[in-house]
Structure to design on (312 residues):
């Protein structure tokens, strides 16, 4: 039996799509009348504290989110494997966001917008893409997809991950000891890390001060589409104000929704989006997790299982 436990999304819509795809496999929602011991899979998003109570025969916890940081903090998380969402549709959506913001900053959107508003004809030529270095923090599923889509645009690419990566056209930096070298050659820093104790707060003033400063007019840029916990917003405000950063694109925030009182809303060189960079759609989510369930029921191993030790 599959149990759905989804908050803040259309649980009924997901349930009927799963029921149709998996029939005759039983699919229930938390308000339904069912035997908790019969539940083999629980599909969750923002689970409540009692979400896993009495689910004593779980094969797997299925996470609607690609990021499992909040789930890992659940106080009564069962010992079952956690399968996270990994899907081409999600990757494409995230790469759309990354490419849009990288090219916007490379082509000096903030400057030319200000010139337009001032009716100022000021010819300025941004550096060529090849002269502009995009550094991707987190070279997993999403980071690699973004790199593959940025490469044909001609950017110079580098990545930073826990372990070294061999991706054509991307210079790999790995481990905490390589972070400073990675930052020193980066003009546009794209964050696609998972949120773990090691990565929390990594987008801070000291990090920004280590980015390359001689390439982009106005200063280096950050693009954060991963988690708000990665960034220190007070440091971003300070860095945008004193020129340590030229601009920032932020899709995620320390507190979501971003409070009305946040200074980020009003900064001309800060581009705020409300955690919409990429969404797990019903179509892609049901297709992916139905395959996970049917394969597991057929005795095949689970895929994309979270390593609890690493936290992602
Ligand atoms: P993956 O697990 O596939 O990739 C994570 C990458 O980060 C890996 O390359 C890993 O290194 C690297 N990494 C992890 N810890 C460290 C560390 N301490 N130091 C250096 N590198 C590290 O994740 P995804 O690409 O699928 O997703 C990334 C994140 O994107 C998610 O966790 C989620 O928070 C966020 N996200 C945001 C969305 C949005 O709408 N804003 C939508 C979807 C996801 P290694 O390869 O060596 O293990
Ligand atoms: C995710 C997200 O982790 O939407 O999938 O943030």
């Amino acid at each position: 039996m599959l149990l759905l436990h989804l908050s803040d999304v259309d649980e009924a819509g997901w349930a009927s799509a799963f029921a149709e795809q998996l029939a005759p496999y039983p699919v229930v929602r938390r308000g339904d009348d069912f035997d908790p011991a019969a539940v083999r899979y629980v599909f969750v998003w923002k689970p409540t504290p009692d979400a896993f109570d009495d689910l004593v025969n779980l094969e797997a916890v299925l996470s609607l989110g690609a990021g499992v940081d909040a789930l890992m903090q659940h106080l009564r998380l069962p010992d079952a494997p956690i399968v996270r969402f990994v899907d081409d549709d999600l990757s494409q959506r995230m790469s759309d966001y990354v490419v849009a913001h990288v090219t916007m900053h490379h082509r000096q959107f903030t400057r030319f917008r200000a010139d337009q508003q001032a009716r100022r004809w000021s010819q300025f030529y941004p550096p060529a893409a090849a002269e502009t270095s995009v550094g991707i923090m987190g070279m997993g599923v999403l980071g690699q997809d973004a790199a593959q889509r940025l490469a044909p645009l001609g950017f110079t690419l580098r990545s930073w991950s826990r372990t070294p990566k061999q991706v054509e056209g991307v210079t790999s930096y790995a481990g905490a000891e390589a972070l400073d070298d990675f930052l020193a050659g980066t003009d546009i820093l794209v964050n696609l890390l998972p949120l773990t104790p090691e990565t929390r707060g990594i987008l801070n003033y000291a990090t920004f001060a280590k980015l390359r400063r001689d390439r982009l007019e106005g200063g280096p840029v950050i693009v954060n589409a991963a988690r708000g916990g990665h960034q220190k917003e007070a440091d971003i405000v300070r860095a945008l104000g004193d020129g340590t950063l030229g601009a920032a694109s932020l899709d995620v925030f320390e507190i979501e929704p971003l409070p009305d009182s946040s200074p980020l809303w009003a900064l001309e060189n800060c581009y705020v989006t409300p955690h919409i960079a990429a969404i797990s759609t019903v179509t892609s989510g049901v297709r992916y997790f139905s395959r996970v369930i049917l394969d597991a029921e057929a005795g095949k191993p689970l895929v994309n299982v979270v390593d609890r030790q690493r936290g992602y």
Notes: Residues 66-67, 94, 138-143, 160-163, 192-196, 198-199, 225-227, 251-252, 275, 277-278, 312 surround NDP (ligand 1) (CB under 6 Å). The chain has a mean pLDDT of 98.
